[in-house]
Amino acid sequence: MSFSSKTLKPVLASVLLAAAFTFAWVGSSPAGSYQAPLSVTAVTETTAVSSEDAVRVDARCPAGSVATGGGVRVGADSPVLVESDSPARDARGWDAQVASLDEEEGPQRVKVTVLCARGVAR
After folding, report:
1. Is pLDDT of 33 > 60?
2. What dotted CATH number matches 5-120?
3. What residues does each domain of the chain span?
4. Is the distance from CB of 59 to CB of 72 less than 8 angstroms?
């Protein structure tokens, strides 16, 4: 599954909306107060894929941050296969595995982005 620039924006917007609802729900619990992240940053790793062999691309959150979402971006007509696209097991990044489908086209640029939240307001 690959995302074009037209589909990545709605996906990221959905992730941010889901995060906002999650934070609002935590605040509505009888026991607690509203807690929101002090900062949210996006970290992007870019690589060129030129081989049919799968290449792993990881975007990692800074120390003290956790991943709240992410995704892979390839060109609209790019011959790249996204074999996997998921949060890192430690919740501190986003992992993807990609491969070029046409070595003759030359290197294809792939971007993996993770959204990272840090801290809470009390």
Report:
1. no
2. 2.60.120
3. 5-120
4. no
